[in-house]
Amino acid sequence: MNGNILIEKLLVTRASQQQYFQFNIPRDVTTITGILTTVQLIDVPVVSGTGQVGFLQLQSTGKANGCYNSIVKLEPAVALKSDLSLKSYQAGFTQTNALLLNGLAQRGITKPEIINLSACNNVYGNYKDLLGKILSKDIQYRVAITLWTKTIRL
Amino acid sequence: MSIIVKKRFDVAITAADKVYSQSFELDKTITFIKGILLTADKEDLLYYRGSQKIEVNKQEVFPEDYASKLLMTGINISPNQRYYDTGNLPVGNGIVKIEYKDQNDTRLAFEPYRISIYLDCEQREL
Question: Is residue A58 part of a domain?
Fold first, then answer.
């Protein structure tokens, strides 16, 4: 593989909690090419609604405008609840079965969001909880922020 | 001449909130790993609860806490596109190590499950 994967994991325990962190970017990294956030719920009631979990801000050092803002969202528990009455979903299956209603089996490729950030020493991050604020209670969950990078081939 | 072979290794996950470390040895004739895929007999448990570190020949390919869902695939994907493309990853002494971490998630209660790691390998023809 011509690149590294960098991961920062945050533990959120209080409503509206704000956390600051940083990625130390290895010296052989030439560009940061992708980003993806994942959420693991530790102590949270079943969440409905918009699925918003928090607000993420990243800022790279060394250059202006090297920033990234995004709302971190929860993936739905079941991505595809029904076949939407479209028979084409059942092509190839002799009987209706659980596989057709299984969002995990039906999902496509998971790809990171593509970004193009030039080499830097650090990426500073700020994460603010929204889920606890919306539910008006302290809740526990983990957020993992994954960065994909390209490196010089030595 | 070389041929493409697929290898499968299993890890049994028997208790919640634990790390399972296992090493697997590849055949000496395998020269490169070209792709990696992760699946389970209960995919939803792997999706919501799993993360892992994978090393090939002591070289870290996926760091600790890399979410398992990023190495899974759905049936809507063509079989030729299902593996995570690692490029030509030299196998060296042929040891693949996985450190799988199961972590509690309120969306899904724990029950024992089995994860499978599939490797898309290039093998030297004898």
Answer: yes
The CATH number that applies at residue A13 is: 2.60.120
The domain total for chain B is: 1
Residue B115 maps to which CATH number? 2.60.120
What b/e sequence results for B2-39 when a residue is b if at least 16 CB atoms lie within 10 Å of its CB, and e otherwise? eeeeebebebebeeeeeebeeebebeebbbbbbbbbbb
- Across A14-43, average pLDDT: 91
Distance (Å, whole) CA A130 – CA A39: 13
For chains A and B, CB pairs below 8 A equal 64
- Per-residue pLDDT tens for A72-102? 988 755 444 444 444 444 445 555 556 656 6
* Interface mutation vs chain A, best among B46, B48, B102, most A CBs within 10 Å: B48
Asked if B81's CB is within 8 angstroms of A109's CB, the reply is yes
Q: What is the pLDDT of residues B67-113, one digit of tens each?
A: 998 899 887 788 888 999 998 999 888 899 999 999 998 878 899 99
From the list B74, B103, B104, which residue is nearest A104 (CB)? B74
ipTM of the complex: 0.75
Q: Name chain B contacts of A45, Cβ cutoff 8 Å.
A: 106
- Chain centroid offset of residue B57 CA: 14
